[in-house]
Amino acid sequence: MTTILPLGLLDKAISSRVWILMKDDREFEGTLRGFDDFFNMVLENVIELDNGKKSKLESILLNGTQICLIVPGGEIR
Amino acid sequence: MSHEKRTSADFFKQVFGRTVTVKLHNRTEYIGVLAALDGNMNIVLEQCEEYLESKLINKYGQILLRGNNVLYISAKFNQTKQQDVEI
């Protein structure tokens, strides 16, 4: 059985939509363009969900320190 | 790697001198021209406006934000002023 490392899974998700949950109940959904070892992420066509309020962002660098969960192919519900 | 991967270093190069929105963990937003950025996400913004809950509360000629507070740096590449859009 091949081993998949966490950052390897993230690499597979590049160019597809990802759903990101932060520690404080914020959510982001966007197209993953890149990331680094610290889980800082470059996302495009982003939807931000904060306290029930959605907003759109064209291109962001998201700080990895507060990221809790990443769902490849997932979306904000 | 077969994909074209844009890392944070590439994002840095693209956003220098542009108007960006920096949102902090405490929901405060700063819109200004990006003058400096380092690997710790420490940021220098110029001609900066400070917004809390979409209300303008302050303006600064130059501001240094400590990177540990930064949630995201957002850029628009058609250079219009960034406004939150309700979906």
Automatic annotation (TrEMBL), chain A:
InterPro entries: LSm5 (IPR033871), Sm (IPR047575), Sm_dom_euk/arc (IPR001163)
Localisation per UniProt entry: Nucleus
UniProt keyword list: mRNA processing, mRNA splicing, Nucleus, Ribonucleoprotein, RNA-binding, rRNA processing, Spliceosome, tRNA processing
GO MF annotations in UniProt: RNA binding
GO CC, alphabetical: Lsm1-7-Pat1 complex; spliceosomal complex; U4/U6 x U5 tri-snRNP complex; U6 snRNP
SMART domains: Sm
Ranges where the Sm domain occurs: 5-76
UniProt cross-references to CDD domains, sorted A to Z: LSm5
GO biological process: mRNA splicing, via spliceosome; rRNA processing; tRNA processing
Main location: nucleus
Chain ranges passing through the membrane: none
Recorded superkingdom: Eukaryota
Record function comment: Plays a role in U6 snRNP assembly and function. Binds to the 3' end of U6 snRNA.
SUBUNIT field: LSm subunits form a heteromer with a doughnut shape.
Family of the protein in this entry: Belongs to the snRNP Sm proteins family.
Name of the protein in question: U6 snRNA-associated Sm-like protein LSm5
From TrEMBL, chain B:
Cited PROSITE patterns: SM (PS52002)
Any one annotated GO CC term: U6 snRNP
Keywords of this entry: Cytoplasm, mRNA processing, mRNA splicing, Nucleus, Ribonucleoprotein, RNA-binding, rRNA processing, Spliceosome, tRNA processing
SMART domains recorded: Sm (SM00651)
Subcellular location: Cytoplasm; Nucleus
Predominant location: cytoplasm
Limits of the Sm domain: 7-79
Organism domain of life: Eukaryota
Molecular functions (GO terms): RNA binding
GO biological-process terms attached to the record: maturation of SSU-rRNA; mRNA splicing, via spliceosome; tRNA processing
Coiled coil spans: none
Pfam families: LSM
Leader peptide range in chain numbering: none
Family, similarity comment: Belongs to the snRNP Sm proteins family. SmF/LSm6 subfamily.
Official protein name in the record: Sm domain-containing protein
